[in-house]
Amino acid sequence: MEFASIFNEANMVGFLLLFFRFASLFIAVPIFDHKNIPINIKAVMAFFFAVIFYPSMPPLHISIDVPTILIAILGEFMLGLCVGIVLQLAYNVITFAGGQISYMMGFSMASAIDPQSGISMPIISQFLSLMALMVLFALNLHHWILMFVDSTLKTIPLGGFVMSKDLFHYIMHAASNMFLIGFVIAFPIIALSWLADVIFGMLMKTMPQFNLLVIGFPIKIMVAFSVLIATLTAIMLILKGQVQEAFNMLETLF
Question: Mapping DSSP to helix (H, G, I), strand (E, B) and coil, where does residue 161 land?
């Protein structure tokens, strides 16, 4: 009799909403949103974790009717989308900086399909993105997501998410901060590239036979790669700080 009571309407709807909470996060959050992970695998993962977290699911506080359930499902997708946007803005600092670096190195046209996002991206952005992905795995971001879902079950009832004004303001602030931090990351290479352009311009004035295309560009690329290698550790530390800050904000916003 007790086993049969598990399959009442409230528990089934609660399990459905818990499944959509995991599914929305796996679609929008870095690491889990990788394009090489098939959508059916993400659905199986969401179902598996919904089963694991089912015992800690809070009681359902919504009415059991079709319009209310559909609105609750949309709310769960909105929760995952907002969490994904906050974390993606922290993660995309790297790809924005890589785009600026590629432009200064003359690699802006050297782009390929990024296996993670599925879009065309400069090769420097792809390199930094893959390095950042390994850093996120080293930080156990996938474990953080699961612990975050466990905490949201205590603070946000299933189907009860409402986007707050503070969350909207933080997303706007994080979007502007992405460009600022990305420019700070790329600034050493940009500054040295500008300095190299000034030096090459002076050489061309004093030595007209100086061939910028043959000599100048390889030197500029070599200098940029040297600075990138020297600052790679600092770049990953900045990424780590941005992701940790985003997670700390998630704990206060949700």
Answer: coil
